[in-house]
Structure prediction request, 743 residues.
Amino acid sequence: MTDNHIEVAAARQQPSQDAEASAALERAQTLLGRMTSAEKIGQLHQVNGGYSELEQQIRDGNVGSVINEVRMDTLNELQRIACEESRLGIPLLIGRDVIHGFRTIFPIPLGQAAAWDTQLIETCARVAAIEAASVGVNWTFAPMLDVSRDPRWGRIAESLSEDPYLCSHLGAAMVRGFQGDDLSQPGAIAACAKHFAGYGAVEGGIDYNTTNIPEIELRSTYLPSFKAALDAGAVTVMASFTDLNGVPATANEFLMQQVLRKEWGFGGFVVSDWDSIVQLSVHGLTANDAESALAAFDSGINMDMNSGVYSRNLGAALAAGAISETQLDAMVEPILATKFRLGLFENAYCDPASFPAAVNHDHRELAKQAAMKSCVLLKNANNTLPLLRETITSLAVIGPLADDGYEQLGTWVFDGDAADSITALAALQTALAPAITIHSARGVENTRSHNTDGFDAAIEAARQADSVVMFVGEEAILSGEAHCRADINLPGAQVQLIEAISELGKPLTLVIMAGRPLTLSNVIDKVDAILYAWHPGTMAGPAIADLLFGVSAPSAKLPVTFPRVVGQIPIYYGHKNTGKPPSHDTITSMEAIDNRAPQTSLGMSAFYLDAGFTPLFPFGFGLSYSRFEYRDLSLSAATLLPTDEIKVQVTLQNTGPCAAEEIVQLYIRDLVASVTRPVKELKGFQKHYLQSGASIRVEFSLSRSDLMFCNRHMEWVTEPGDFRVWVGGCSDTEMSADFRLEA
Ligand code: NOJ
Prediction:
């Protein structure tokens, strides 16, 4: 079914894990009986590493977790103090942002998502966990499960998709990768489903901004990925910085109690985001820290990340009767249970000898595979790619990101080292010398620079070459937390540089490295090919070199929609139809409007006069060096009984010149329902590797659970009636068949 050669241990939430969770809970309850109130409050306190009184605080039983300390010797010493010098010997949770790799850096999450490969993403998370555990980290703040439909938001780099289905499947795979089958095994670390919830809907794409999400939309779009991650066994959750419908997540009882604990039965614990409890008064929800501590505690935030407000205020709240010992116990219990599940009471120390070296050959190979499978071929006019060794003798490699081992790593690289990176220029030199001469020039100092002094050298390099590849995009720091952009064109003088080079008329390929979808309308017609590489990580160079020269064919598909212009945002494939949907006959140009044309609503529809209604590239889009044909869509039945399944089959043939991998996508639409439904919803995907000329019959199953939706009463239901199903290589596929769900 897939050509993914990387093995991954089957890691699924199993009944044995339930038994082990209950045993951990019992041990936690017994331990609680021996703890003082102060020691319990200590367990709720997460402290930043390097804090001057940290050791004494741990000795006194006032710290439950440490964040941002990754020196192995220091961590072992902190664990020794906790286990041997504190009264009850309770070990520490050691948290770290291990988001897309630890030392070996994989593509940013949005890039990994473009591979649509659960096995690959699970394996990357597994390797990240092993490398992190090898220094003593036992808890990562990942996966980020925030569905996002706004590429201005810098944190879209960390998102897995605009789509709840894709985000759910990839997020669950990451959880399995981090946690493995058994959290107590070496190399397994606790996952954290974040940021609960709705963070991806920040107004205007500005980080930390307000979110207003109707409950039906929250449940339909933003919550499913969290539910999937918890079903996969994620033992912790992080509250979002944001306020949701007027109540900050960090004090949001609806989210933390109603949804998380009551409806979903979550038995793990919730950590605040960094200082998000003290920030409750900045939001204007509380008047002071004491009130903030109470508001967060009452809503069900178990652990205070960094701020110290729990540590400073909960003792007094307990003494004043504002919180009870029973409530306190309930907050501490899942934290202790997690420590038991991680096996920390048996052994809290890290022994590097039991781990492979970081950034070893296998980890690098995996990083290369991941990078290769995440690059999306967006344009390939006249088969510009792959470049053929036989037909070129010289290649120009131009641009600020061609040879920058740091910028290719992406946003969350606390522990990655640019010295481990192999850049595209280095990889191309290794692969091509001496047969093909490389002429290289940066053109601009960095992606933001407006200085054009380097243009002449770049133009000269291009002039000397048979073919030109330009490495442009965004530096890593232009995306990620708090790095949002209102204009998402290529920054600086890069567009000018592309224009100048394109005038030479040489075959011109752009390799774009970026933390978000960029708007490419102003360059797309000036270049022959575009390979969208996101920030590909440590092994960007070898991966891109192989793709450019056809050692492998690109197979990735977009996990988010690419707008034509920023004003189209939010633009996503799973929108509602509206009562006035546009069609391809719609006039989408201001110039086509007659002078003094009278205002009318007749025949009007939902679109922009100056940007139309289609994106530049739709969700699920991605080209290959080969071609795939879909035909003979068939359903096993015209009606689906509630307890039955429908088999959806299609023939997939590789009709192009080379072996390649295709991501086959299945979408449905509920044609009539008691609430308006998206025009398309992803409900299945598969990857198939086919030799040139080969064909297979691809089969999906649809059952009633795939057709469920959230109704006006916030219940997940199906309604009998007509459905349409599409199968193809992109969300804009038109091949469809209809069936009926019976009552
Ligand atoms: C703030 C971020 O929002 C969160 O994702 C991260 O895990 C914490 N800081 C800890 O660094």
